[in-house]
Amino acid sequence: MKRNKTVLATAVALGVVFTATAAEACSRLIWETENHGVFVSRTMDWMVETHPTIDVRAKGQSYLGADSGTDSKQWTSKYASIMATFYGKAGVDGFNEAGLAANALYFNEESPGDYTAERPQLENSRIVPYILDNYATVEEAVAGLKKIQIQQFSHNGEALKGHYAIQDASGDSAILEFIDGQWEVYHGKQYDVLTNSPEYHQHLKSWEEQQPKSQSVISGSFTLPGNVASEQRFIWNKYMLEQLEEPTSYLNGLAKINSSTYHVPLDAANREIDGVMTSYATQYSLAYNLDQKIMHVRYQFGDVYTQYAVDFNKLNNGKNYTLKADSQDNVGEVSHLFIDKEGVMAQYRI
Predict the structure, then answer these.
(1) For the chain, first and last CA: distance in Å?
(2) Residue pLDDT, tens place only, 21-75
(3) Tens digit of pLDDT for each residue in 127-147?
(4) Which family does it belong to (predicted)?
(5) How far apart are alpha carbons 121 and 75 in whole angstroms?
(6) Cβ(315)–Cβ(29) under 8 Å?
(7) Is 144 helix (H, G, I), strand (E, B) or coil?
(8) Could you count the other beta carbons within 10 Å of the beta carbon of residue 336?
(9) Would you say 95 and 132 are in contact if contact means Cβ atoms under 8 Å apart?
(10) CA 8 to CA 17: how far, in whole Å?
(11) Which domains does the chain have, with CATH numbers?
């Protein structure tokens, strides 16, 4: 079937068509090594440009967690951080100066449930910055989030939904899903891969059934799911991640984990929406080490194809900075290109 992406993109921009339930994309991997700490990699896969920025935020700033509800969560940031943003409204991935990282990936099953006045409200667009601002370890973050009720933010009238990964410099990891108003938490180093739907326990069951049963069967002829659907990407990512050998350097580790993360090809068919075959290609990928604290970005969408790095250590000086993440001018180490300006979270300041 012929694909007409121009028609789809125009419809999205006008708010005529936006089927959020079809946005099944993104992968996140975490890899703990013996001598080079913890590496994290994620892809951002979407059907149209999301106009991301890379924002650096100083600690000591206060924010409002939701625009409705009688008890919107409020906080003052304890840690400086760096994060990638989404549609000028949300933070989707990043890490803080304590070595804690958080990732938000699309998840259609997220459901706030009935409003509960006893729990503070936090819109899911702000959950990544909230985590980065307040916690130094996965254990702290899991305990804090259990007290919070999630609201969903909307784009073009459609609720965008997510589930969340947290990891710290010790290698600890957690996956959190908010379903029917309750948190489902998977906490442990073994939870090293996240994609999208279905619910996480079903991914774990699929891996248990399809994983290699012995080392001897791992080879280029081992039958492995490889298409773009979330269930297949989960298996593919787990299989590739478990083969990684100890890196020889930080750069070698970054190359290894990024190469092991499923990148959805541009123009790869995903599913049909209103008679149009759509693609949810990888717009960009991030890779970083939680000791080193340098964010590596590979942007590859539209007419932009570039790779660059942001040394958070050079920008963690008590100021706020932002950078347009999808510029072809971003090449090499780009901390000097950042503008001294508040980013996406400025609109939620109190």
Answers:
(1) 50
(2) 444 579 999 999 999 999 999 999 998 899 999 999 999 999 999 987 778 999 9
(3) 999 999 999 999 999 999 999
(4) Belongs to the peptidase C59 family.
(5) 12
(6) no
(7) helix
(8) 9
(9) yes
(10) 8
(11) 5-348 (3.60.60.10)
